């Protein structure tokens, strides 16, 4: 069963210079408990696809068309307050800039508690406290009872990112969207955080939309891969198929842009794809 189905999504930005079709006729779905990765270069529309699902597109952006079905319910038809209760409840997101998404003025525990207050109204204060401690424990924060009262600046980058994951997972969302959640972390911590996300996903059966530039991360975490190029999907495939047999010239170019392990420094930015080729001139959505 698909938890989410995005159908023919179009999210455009208008300016005096014209229209920027940031997401143009994009369709994909995520089965229960599975991970779909969106890959593509900077500006290809990955974050805007995610923000569209979260109902966070603001002027000059507008969703021009399509459907976003969460277990059959079209999110694009919800009122603002309906969408607010979906956000952080059935769907939650770890944002691309983790350092700015925790509020520096509140303790770590308070921030997880706020989300529980909104979305798990049946819990009382004491039950919520235990849930927060459990969430911190689950993401591997040492001394969770003490850390409850710490402010974000007291934590390391890796710990802050774990707290972000704890905030996002505390409400046991059906869908977790993670936008480059590990890019700011060093490689060892990154591997730990990915392992952790996979474990939480296994335990809770959460579906995941994972956005990354890093094909090594895709290899580690994806069931299905969506390749975006200038607002379009150029190829969709299972992770296995994509790495073994990339079909679209753009996907091939992306895969060629990963240096061979051991030979060169590992790159996380896909910036070596040839700009002189118009990859949209090839057939789209191969497979
Ligand atoms: N607030 C905005 N106003 C106008 N245009 C925007 C806005 N946000 C994004 N865009 C445009 O939408 C397009 C897609 O941007 P998006 O942020 O989705 O890229 P991305 O694939 O996430 O890139 P990155 O890998 O750098 O995060 C880009 O052309 C970008 O300039
Ligand atoms: Mg982005």
Which characteristics define this entry?
287 residues, binds magnesium ion, alpha/beta, four-stranded antiparallel beta sheet
| Fourth-level CATH superfamily | P-loop containing nucleotide triphosphate hydrolases
Helix content: 25-40%
Rg to the nearest angstrom?
Answer: 19 Å
What's the oligomerization state? Answer: single chain
Number of helices, counting only DSSP H or I runs of 4 residues or more: 11
Into how many domains do the coordinates divide?
A: 1
- Give the structural class: alpha/beta
- Give the H and E element order: EEEHEEHEHHHHHEHEHEEHH
Shape field: globular
CATH third-tier fold name: Rossmann fold
What is the name of the CATH architecture? 3-Layer(aba) Sandwich
**Are any ligands bound, and if so which?**
adenosine-5'-triphosphate, magnesium ion
Mean pLDDT equals: 88
Short description:
The protein has helices at 46-53, 80-86, 98-101, 108-119, 125-138, 144-147, 157-170, 187-204, 215-221, 239-244, 249-256; strands at residues 2-15, 18-31, 35-39, 61-70, 73-74, 91-94, 175-179, 207-211, 224-229, 232-238.
Break the fold down into its secondary structure elements and pairings.
Elements: E1 2-15, E2 18-31, E3 35-39, H1 46-53, E4 61-70, E5 73-74, H2 80-86, E6 91-94, H3 98-101, H4 108-119, H5 125-138, H6 144-147, H7 157-170, E7 175-179, H8 187-204, E8 207-211, H9 215-221, E9 224-229, E10 232-238, H10 239-244, H11 249-256
This protein binds adenosine-5'-triphosphate and magnesium ion.
Magnesium ion is lined by residues 46-47, 96, 179.
